[in-house]
Amino acid sequence: MTRLTVAEIIANIEAGKTIEAVSADYAFTIKIDEYVPYACAAVHDGHQFRKELWEPCLHTQYERWYEEDPETKNMVKSHPIVIAGCDSRFEYDLNRAPNHAIYFDAWGKQLWKNPLSEAMINKSIKKHNNFYKVVHALINQLESKFGFCTVYDMHSYNWKRWDREVPTWNLGTSNIDNARFGNTVETWRQSLSEIEFPNGIKSTSKINDTFQGNGYFLKYITQNFKNTLVLATEIAKVYCDENEQVIYPEVVNAVHKELAFRIPEHAQSTYNTFK
After folding, report:
1. Which is nearest to 266 in space by CA: 241, 239, 231, 236?
2. How many whole angstroms separate alpha carbon 21 and alpha carbon 68?
3. Using 50, 70 and 90 to split pLDDT, how confident is the model at 165?
4. DSSP string, 201-268
5. Which of 23, 56, 103, 151 is 20–30 Å from 267 (CA)?
6. Residue 179: how many CB atoms within 10 A of its CB?
7. CB–CB of 81/32 below 8 Å?
8. Which domain of life is it from (predicted)?
9. pLDDT (tens digit, 9 = 90+) per residue, 214-260?
10. DSSP 8-state secondary structure symbol assigned to residue 117
11. Across the strands, what pairs with 149?
């Protein structure tokens, strides 16, 4: 992996070159092994939290981890194109618009002892803006090359906090063209429901059950590109003990193996339909 500036990453993408890089500020990684009509993203995978924010933050390291999406990058790491955040959403949330990306409170609890300085906020927003410059260049290149592409927008959620039965997989579709993509969404939902987990974990999948797909990452791409389908795909945190901060690597690995063939299979079918 190479450390590159945002300008260098974009230049490589626009030239159609393969890369495996971390941004110069270590805010995100991008891998392009080959150009294909689909990409995977894990915008909430990151846990980094820069040191100047440690003391002002009222949330513990565990409280931050609890709301992040650990291991979502590892679930899709083998795919040809993967972009993932390195920083915690508590520093800035890549799935919120820039003017809402800095939390003042988080999940009902005040986040900072005192308001952050303008310099601190600007440092975070710059990282957010740089990420989306690269996202824009990437999707523009994929649409230009292939005419259509699919983005698998991977997330996870805390299922134990719900007071009802919730699905293992949830697809959020409220901000995509469901008249155009409804059948494709249903095919993806069905494929996810067939995933086999170890340890007796069942696999159920629903659409807009726990979340509706209101994230900025999906909205940004959907609003700027007319021939890219973003599938906001959430897995319940059955791959860890969310209360004890223990990851189950055998479950993460099982998801990775299943998605290794299910994503390209679905992406190819989708491409054949809409190219």
Report:
1. 231
2. 22
3. very high
4. ----EEESSS-----HHHHHHHHH-TTEEEEEEEEESTTEETTTTEE-HHHHHHHHHHHHHHHHHHHH
5. 23
6. 6
7. yes
8. Bacteria
9. 999 999 999 999 999 999 999 999 999 999 999 999 999 999 999 99
10. P
11. 228
Q: Which pLDDT score is estimated for 136?
A: 98
What is the domain range of residue 172?
A: 2-274
HSE value, Cβ hemisphere, 13 Å, CA-based, for 118: 0
Share of the chain above pLDDT 90, in %: 99
Q: What whole-number percentage of the chain has pLDDT above 70?
A: 100
Gap between the Cα atoms of 70 and 42, Å rounded: 9
- Work out how many domains the chain is built from and give that number: 1
What does the angle CA 159 – CA 251 – CA 265 come to, to the nearest 5 degrees? 95
Facing residues of 2 across strands?
A: 21
Dihedral, CA of residue 61, residue 63, residue 69 and residue 71, to nearest 10: 50
Strand ranges (DSSP E) for the chain?
2-4, 19-23, 28-32, 38-42, 81-85, 105-106, 109-110, 149-157, 169-172, 205-207, 228-236, 240-241, 246-247
What does the block give as tokens for 127? 């990282």
Question: Radius of gyration over alpha carbons of the chain, in Å?
Answer: 18
Query: Measured between alpha carbons, how far apart are the two ends of the chain, in Å?
Result: 32
Longest Cα pair distance anywhere in the chain, in angstroms? 53
The residue-averaged pLDDT of 85-102 equals: 98
pLDDT score of 230: 98
Model confidence at 175, pLDDT cuts 50, 70, 90, reads very high
Which band of pLDDT confidence, cut at 50, 70 and 90, is reported for residue 159?
very high
